Amino acid sequence: MRKLLNGKWVMPLLAALGAAAAVVPGVAMPANGQTAPADVADALAANPLIPAAVAGRVTADVLDLAVAGERVIEGGDPALPVDLWHVGSLTKSMTATLAARMVAAGQIRWNTTVGEVLGGTIPEIDPAWNETSLRAFLTHRSGITANLQRASARDLGDGPRRDYVAEILSEPPDQTPGDFHYSNAGYVVAGAMLEAVGRAPWEQLIAAEGFGPLGMDSAGFGPPQGAVIEGHATRLFGGLRSAGQALDADNIRAVGPAGRVHLSAQDMLRYLQAHLLQDEDYLSAELWAILHAPVGEEAYAMGWGVGEDGSLVHSGSNTLWYAVAYVDPVAGEAVFVAVNTGDVAVVVEPVNDALTALLSAAPD
User: Fold this and answer.
1) Does some domain include residue 119?
2) What's the rounded Cα separation, in Å, for the pair 59 and 216?
3) Using one digit for the tens of pLDDT, what is the confidence trace for 124-150?
4) Rounded to whole angstroms, how far apart are CA atoms 223 and 153?
5) Residue 238: inside a domain, yes or no?
6) DSSP, residue by residue, 97-141
């Protein structure tokens, strides 16, 4: 069994505001040696605190996925392969990939600064941010705080991303610029920079340049709507409750570029396949290399943690869902696992064991 993750990539869960968070813990091979997606999904959904699960693997030629469990706990409706899954901070690499598309189109540069694209439209920005680059935000090295303060986010509610950015950049960096500091807010600022040069909301830009060209037709934002799988929260005295589909079943809309995408497992695997194969019809080899290049001792690229063998990994949770993606160019495969509950004390270990099991058939 190959080593999946370097131990230094164990990160704290950044869950303030229910914010999109990255966790990259070490994983171990489960004793039963499961490999088929159907077996993995069934095993996860057998946990009474996991209503539904999806597991999938993709290579250059094969896409295989399976779902198990029910859409809503004790609801009776089974989860289906077409159902949508909220992927939290897996959105971050999607925002970075959108940035690469816009770099290719000449709309922005990796070293484009806040002052260049936002300074003229958001006067509240502290001058200390003027020289901070798009690249710094995408690699978590801008010095920005992790999240907007809870009270401010509550006050913003469904308000515009511009107001989030104006408040978060009204004070100077609270971390040392150049040092690694995982930040959802940084990706919100990056999204606002893309909006400024693209002259459209991030949601429209990523749909046109991210989802559309890759055939990710199911992708959307916020809690999945309609007759669908729902996220679940842990009750105060134990057990689960459905989080429903209202706005409060996710982070505020302004946080979109950091973690509000939902999509089908098939489309998520299509996305991972693009990163696995580094499709040059979509991005040049140079731009793929930039997206996947580890920076510093933390070995964080743009929306990915990077293993010593070049593998890519990230997880995401809005505290109501939990998802993990892993791309292994050496083995020629990528895998995706998600569940519709986000209690990390319950789901992190079984989901990461499931991830390992999906990879267990590959050679060392």
Assistant:
1) no
2) 17
3) 999 999 999 999 999 999 999 999 988
4) 18
5) yes
6) HHHHHHHHTTS--TT-BHHHHTTTT-TT--GGGTT-BHHHHHTT-
**Encoded tokens for 311:** 């593998």
Locate 86 and state its tokens.
């909220």
Q: How many domains does the chain have?
A: 1
- Give the C-alpha distances (Å, rounded to integers) separating 7 from 20, 100, 139: 22, 29, 19
Residue 73 belongs to a domain: yes
The percent of residues above 90 in pLDDT, for the chain, comes to 73
Angle, helix 265-277 to helix 285-292, in steps of 10 degrees: 110
* Helix/strand/coil for 293: coil
Has residue 55 been placed in a domain? yes
Check whether 10 has a pLDDT greater than 60.
no
Q: What is the rounded average pLDDT for all residues in the chain?
A: 88
- Structure tokens belonging to residue 5: 């993750």
Phi, psi of 268 (to 5 degrees): -65, -40
Q: Which long-range contacts (CB under 8 A, 24 or more apart) does 4-9 make?
A: 4/307, 4/311, 4/313, 4/326, 4/355, 4/356, 4/359, 5/305, 5/307, 5/311, 5/313, 6/299, 6/307, 6/308, 8/297, 8/298, 8/299, 9/298, 9/299, 9/305, 9/307, 9/313
84, 319 in Cβ contact below 8 A? no
CA atoms of 67 and 88, how far apart (whole Å): 19
Give start and end residues of each alpha helix (H) in the chain: 37-45, 91-104, 114-117, 134-138, 150-156, 161-168, 184-198, 202-206, 256-259, 265-277, 285-292, 344-359
Between the alpha carbon of residue 309 and those of residues 202, 300, 312, the distances in Å are 33, 14, 9
Task: Locate 48 and state its tokens.
Answer: 């009474």
Domain of residue 24 covers 7-87+228-251+264-277+286-359
| β-bridge mates for residue 216, sequence order | none
Q: Can you give the pTM of this predicted structure?
A: 0.90
Helix (H) or strand (E) holding 325: strand 322-328
Give 295-331 pLDDT, tens digit per residue. Answer: 999 999 999 999 999 999 999 999 999 999 999 999 9
Q: What is the token pair recorded at 187?
A: 């990706």
Q: What stretch of H or E contains 336?
A: strand 333-339
| Calpha distance 315→338 (Å, rounded) | 9
